[in-house]
Amino acid sequence: MNLFEFHLPTKIYSGNGTFLKTGEYIKEFIQGKRLFIVTDPGLIKWGVVEKLESILQGFETQCFTEVKPNPRDTDCIRGGELAHEFKADGIVALGGGSVIDAAKAIAILQVLGGRPQDYAGRDQVPSAVTPIIAIPTTAGTGAEVTRSSVITDTEKKIKLTIKDVKIAPAVAIVDPELTYELPAPLTASTGMDALVHAVEAFTCKRSNPIAEGLAIEAMKRIYPFLRRAVKDGTDTDARYQLMIGATIAGMAFSHADVAAVHCMAEAIGGLYDTPHGVANSMFLPYIIAFNAEADLKKHAIIGRTLGLATESTPDEVATAALVTEMKQLAQDLAIPTFASLPQVNRADFDDLAESAFQNGSTPSNAREITKEDYLLLFEKAYGA
């Protein structure tokens, strides 16, 4: 039996309307009154930041809105400097995964200085950081409960990952109502991101019984409701299930790992700035087919969990049905293919394969994978 640890330092408040109680929930976690709000311009226009500030009566706030999709190291450095000048007692991350990941890096840099690159890898944060309150506005990354922050190195055009329990949010406020106005493409891509988290948490080498149970539960909540939420954004039941499923998937992979799908997705995200959920969707079927050779039983269990096969269906057939459905699901959700991205250049594939291979999650992949394997998988996804 493999030894494992499971440590979830985040207190979760979940359900419709929890956002409105943010000020009440965070009082026990913040020693002081100065809150540095990390968000993005879209949420300013939507009016949700103004609403948050009104909810946080009794606190002094300052907003940082310079976070971009696939958050940049330069923006995190600037945010850290401003949070330090403000003497923030807490960091409130209001937004999707990019905002929450940036907030984690800002919380480090406010206290410790430097650049995100200084803390990349596992357990490289030497001391406590500013407490983080995470309020997700998408049902996707699960960043509100993870110990990871993925940041783009703007010079090298690669993504780096900080993995340390010290950057896990102290509080996660998971309110499905914040996702009601998400457009269909964003609902689709973030939902697929959450599904990939569950799949990779279940199948990767670093998985464990608790992570596996969470991953299966996440799949049961995400997959049946994803098409519904994309088709009808006012489907409140679908919105609820996706939001809770994404958080559960975040708990699962944070206590296991992701694997080759993310390694490939982060490679093209770093080079082409491709939205993360879109990138994950492009490569998921090809990695499932590749990895099934190493652990056919687990991949077949996923097929059965999603209702694509019965208990009596042979494992090979259940896994083949899973590969087919993941391709069909991305198509139904109007997620672009790898080859359809205008910036993709086959001349980059060798560099992309190297970047994927160097990713810290490559060793966690269910099947041993080389740079040459990654290169073939990029070609296969491109030629599909």
UniProtKB/TrEMBL annotation:
Residues in Fe-containing alcohol dehydrogenase-like C-terminal domain copies: 187-382
Superkingdom of the organism of origin: Bacteria
Pfam families per UniProt: ADH_Fe_C, Fe-ADH
Keyword Oxidoreductase tagged: yes
Keywords annotated in UniProt: Oxidoreductase
PROSITE patterns documented for this protein: ADH_IRON_1 (PS00913)
The keyword Oxidoreductase appears for this protein: yes
Species for this entry: Halalkalibacter alkalisediminis
A single GO molecular function term of this UniProt record: oxidoreductase activity
Annotated protein name in UniProt: Iron-containing alcohol dehydrogenase
Domain Alcohol dehydrogenase iron-type/glycerol dehydrogenase GldA: 9-176
EC number: 1.1.1.-
